[in-house]
Design goal:
With about 110 residues, this protein is an alpha+beta fold. It has four helices and five strands. A five-stranded antiparallel sheet has the order 1-2-5-4-3, with no helix packed on it.
Length: about 110
């Protein structure tokens, strides 16, 4: 995955604008937000960004975090983190075929 992906930005923006159209998994870890997005949602190059039934894990670049910090902060506020900030963002993605969902997992460290 290209860490500066417009596709990932667009998916994050979709989730922020339409939280009623996605599934938020209950928080198991303090620094993670896990989201299921219906696979009918249009995503550019899903075969690259949401591989079928396998995980793709990527450390987002500093430039991605810097450019989209406000958007990432929105998701950070959904965590149970007690620290006031984060330095790294890991994004794990997958296409869960049986559930007809795109998995999007954000880990803030």
């Amino acid at each position: 995955m290209a860490s500066n992906s417009d596709s990932i930005y667009n998916v994050l923006t979709y989730v922020k604008r339409h939280p009623d159209r996605v599934v938020f998994k209950p928080r198991e870890y303090a620094n993670v937000v896990t989201i299921g997005i219906p696979d009918q949602v249009k995503v550019a190059n899903p075969e690259i960004y949401f591989p079928s039934d396998r995980l793709s894990v990527n450390l987002m670049t500093d430039s991605f975090v810097g450019e989209y910090g406000d958007l990432l902060n929105h998701f950070y506020e959904l965590t149970k983190q007690s620290k006031p900030d984060y330095h790294n963002v890991w994004i794990t993605t997958s296409h869960l075929n049986q559930q007809a969902l795109y998995l999007l997992d954000l880990s803030f460290e």
